[in-house]
Model the fold of this input.
Amino acid sequence: MSLPKFNLSQLFPNLDRQILILAMGRLLSQIGTGFTLFYVPIFLSIKLVYLQLQLVLL
Done:
């Protein structure tokens, strides 16, 4: 059983290429924003703990 092959033009046949490029850019931007909002607090809390450990060891 083979999987059907999808072509981007088959999925969105009536959309202009510029619209597709803008939509993909928007999607990547939103994914990057979500990635940043998820990982920044983790990174900053680890950095804060590391700085506190440096102060204790001094």
The helical segments are 8-11, 17-57. The chain has two helices and no strands. The chain has a mean pLDDT of 81. The two ends are 65 Å apart (CA to CA).
